[in-house]
Amino acid sequence: MERGKNPVVNRCIAQAWELLLTEEIEAAYRLVEAALADHDHVRLWRFKKRVLLMLGDEPAAELIMRRIVDHIHMPTATELALIRSEMSSFTALKIHKLLYLHVPKCGSTTVKDMLYHILTGERGEGHSHSRMLEQAPYRMLVRAKLPVDYADWFRFLVVRDPISRLRSYYRFNLVFTDDLSKEVGKRESFMGLRLQPTYDQFLKNLHRYRQVFPTLRAHTNPLSDIAGDDPSVYDWVGLVARMDELRAKLSEKTNTAIPAIHNFHSKNMVALEPTPALEEQVRPLCARDYEIYGCYF
User: Fold this and answer.
1) Sign of the torsion formed by the C-alpha atoms of 266, 272, 277 and 282
2) In Å, what is the CA distance from 232 to each residue of 64, 102, 152, 228, 237?
3) Which of 50, 53, 97, 130 has the most CB atoms less than 10 A away?
4) Does one domain contain both 230 and 105?
5) Closest Cα to residue 158, out of 230, 248, 239, 222?
6) Is there a domain that residue 18 lies in?
């Protein structure tokens, strides 16, 4: 399978992306299929996987991902979650022997701000994700091997009730920072989905939103698809509400006076009046989360 630079492949993907933006999804699919007949290239397969998700064929997208995952230098967390991989992308502070698994909407900005402060003595000031990536690139690790391969490291995971995660994503990423417009440009809707839906509209169409928007999918993947089904591989698992406890542990283990860092924006975000029945309807998506991590919620 090809992996290097290929101008023909690059042009094809650019053209296919333009077709997607004009909602000509079938034409984009045909274009990529035709290109794959001549170029067995990993970028084309990844793009086909994305188009299949938008077409609603998640099983076919998963099959493609399983076929190509070993040909990708660094699969995204969403790609790993799609195939429920045994691997995850960890942030590792080698000098302090800290290993952190980032789960979106689980206080990750605050955690990475603390890690950045440990390494530099400074605040990430809203850029802790990118700055930590420069300081400590992700490590692709098999979770089951952590207790042996990283036995003397502090391995930790911050979790959150799945419904609380959805509310947080809606209020901050979907409404406050308007993430979907960043993905497909300023418009009212895309593929029949409003870019600024009400919370009820978001819940009613959550499955379809996850198929169409990769950024939304990344932020709403089940915790168990990211962190696995064995919490015992982590030394510490705790709720976002226990962030002060985590800060104290990290301060003690690194001999660093980490200041109280909280990157929550609740006061700036829209208020919610959830419809309990609609939230109940999306719980099946998170069934394994409640089964495996429910004791922490």
Assistant:
1) negative
2) 31, 17, 15, 10, 9
3) 53
4) yes
5) 239
6) yes
Q: Which helix (H) or strand (E) holds 154?
A: strand 154-159
- Quote the tokens at residue 118: 């440990």
169 occurs within a structural domain: no
Q: Do 106 and 150 fall within a single domain?
A: yes
Q: What is the pLDDT of residues 119-172, one digit of tens each?
A: 998 877 767 788 888 888 899 999 999 999 999 999 999 999 999 999 999 999
Beta bridge partners of 140: 89
Residue 136 lies in a domain: yes
Instruction: List the domain range (segments joined by +) for residue 25.
Output: 7-73
Q: How many CB atoms lie within 10 A of CB 262?
A: 13
First-to-final CA distance of the chain: 43
Q: What six digits make up the tokens of 41?
A: 């290239």
- Structural domain total, the chain: 2
Distance CA 7, CA 10 (A): 5
pLDDT in tens, 6-44: 999 999 999 999 999 999 999 999 999 999 999 999 999
Helix (H) or strand (E) holding 53: helix 42-54
